[in-house]
Specification:
globular
Length: 183
């Protein structure tokens, strides 16, 4: 097997596109406005970024791979739950956890498909305060919290914050509205 180089800071004007089999389900082509936030999240998590996982993993066109974390990062402007079944199958087929960025009119939310869990964790937000990246549910209804590290995703029943004010401060700090995040 030939090992391909992983180029973290490599950017292309024109992406390489492989053709799916006729009739195969695919997510829409990932636009640059979607890809930039994917790269930003991958860099925040840390580790080497494989910008072309489709060279080794079927149906991962447009995704990013953090191999050390066992994490496939994908993005889509499609409303939930569209694309969820396909992305779950891709993650399961390759033994990877999946972080799916979803864009709506005013913010990015995250859906997580974690090996060993039988359903999606949906409508999560980025949270950061004092270092470390977490994904927290939009509604604090007993759902788990997920810490993202270069070694993988860590599920916790304990919040990374002590009260509602700290929760909102961490979400605000981690989710500014820079122009490069516009979809």
């Amino acid at each position: 097997m030939v090992s391909l180089p992983v180029l973290e800071d490599f950017e292309m004007e024109i992406g390489i596109m492989s053709r799916p089999a006729p009739g195969a389900q695919t997510l829409p082509l990932v636009r640059e406005a979607v890809r930039r936030p994917m790269i930003k999240i991958a860099r925040e998590i840390g580790g080497q970024i494989d910008h072309f996982p489709e060279r080794r993993f079927v149906n991962t066109d447009g995704a990013l791979l953090l191999e050390e974390a066992g994490l496939l990062i994908m993005g889509t402007p499609m409303f939930r739950p569209i694309g969820g079944d396909l992305v779950a199958k891709i993650g399961a087929r390759h033994g990877l956890n999946v972080l799916l960025l979803r864009f709506d009119s005013y913010h990015v939310s995250f859906d997580l498909r974690i090996r060993g869990l039988h359903e999606w964790l949906t409508r999560y937000r980025r949270w950061s305060r004092g270092g470390g990246l977490w994904f927290v549910p939009e509604d604090d209804g007993g759902l788990p919290y997920v810490r993202a590290t270069r070694r993988g995703l860590i599920i916790s029943s304990h919040a990374p914050f002590g009260n509602a004010r700290q929760r909102e401060e961490g979400i605000t700090a981690a989710n500014p509205w820079p122009l490069e995040w516009e979809a």
